[in-house]
Amino acid sequence: ERKVTPARVLEVEVSTLRAAGLSERKAMYIKGLAEAFSAGDGDGDHAPLSDERLRAMSDAELMASLTALKGFGCWSVHMFMIFSLGRPDILPTGDYGVRKGAMRHFGLSTMPTPAKLEALAATWAPYRSVASHYMWRKAEE
Predict the structure, then answer these.
(1) Does residue 75 have a pLDDT over 50?
(2) Fewer C-beta within 10 Å: the chain N or C terminus?
(3) Cα–Cα distance between 58 and 54 in angstroms, integer?
(4) Quick check: 30 pLDDT over 80?
C-alpha cells in the first residue's frame, strides 16, 4: 500500500500531477502544502504543520496558518474545518450555496453578503456547520 505523504508528494513531478488532472497552479499549491508539512527537522516532528497541530489549533489559528499558504483561501479552510476536522460551528460565509440557501430560508430578494449572513446566522451558533448543510440543501430547491 502506498500512502500519500508530504515526502511522496514532493517527489512527484508537476507533470505527473498535471497528467492526473491538476492545473499547474493547483499542482504547485499541493506541493507547497506538502512542503509546509515536511519542513523542519527532516522527519516531520518539528514541521510547521502536522495533523496533530492542525487538530489542536483554534479556528482563528487554522485560518491564519492555512491562508498563509499560497492557494488556500477562507473558503478552502472553512471546508477543511467542516469536512476534515468535523468542527461544529463553522459558517462558510463566502460559500455560494450557503448564501443562496440563506437567501431562500430568510425570504430575501438577493443573496446576503458575508457580513449579513454572519448576522443572520448568529442564532445558529454553536452548530453553524450543521446549519450550513441545511442551507446547501435549501439552495438546491
Answers:
(1) yes
(2) N
(3) 9
(4) yes
Cell of 121: 446566522
**Using an 8 Å Cβ cutoff, are 135 and 102 in contact?**
yes
The answer to whether residues 85 and 57 touch, using CB atoms and an 8 Å cutoff, is no
pLDDT over threshold 70, residue 70 = yes
Angle between helices 128-139 and 96-106 (to 10 degrees): 80
Burial 3-29, CB ≥16 within 10 A → b, else e: eeebeebeeeeeeebeeeeeeeeebeb
CA-CA distance, 102 to 129, in Å (whole number)? 13
What is the residue type of 110?
T
Cβ 138 vs Cβ 101: under 8 Å: yes
**Residue 46: pLDDT above 90?**
no
pLDDT band at 130 (very low <50, low <70, confident <90, very high): very high
Coil, strand or helix at 24:
helix
Write b or e for each residue in 103-126: b if 16 or more Cβ atoms lie within 10 A of its Cβ, otherwise e. bebeeeeebbeeebbeebbeebee
User: pLDDT at position 44, please?
Assistant: 45
Q: CB-based burial of residue 50 (10 Å sphere; 0-12 exposed, 13-18 middle, 19+ buried)? A: middle
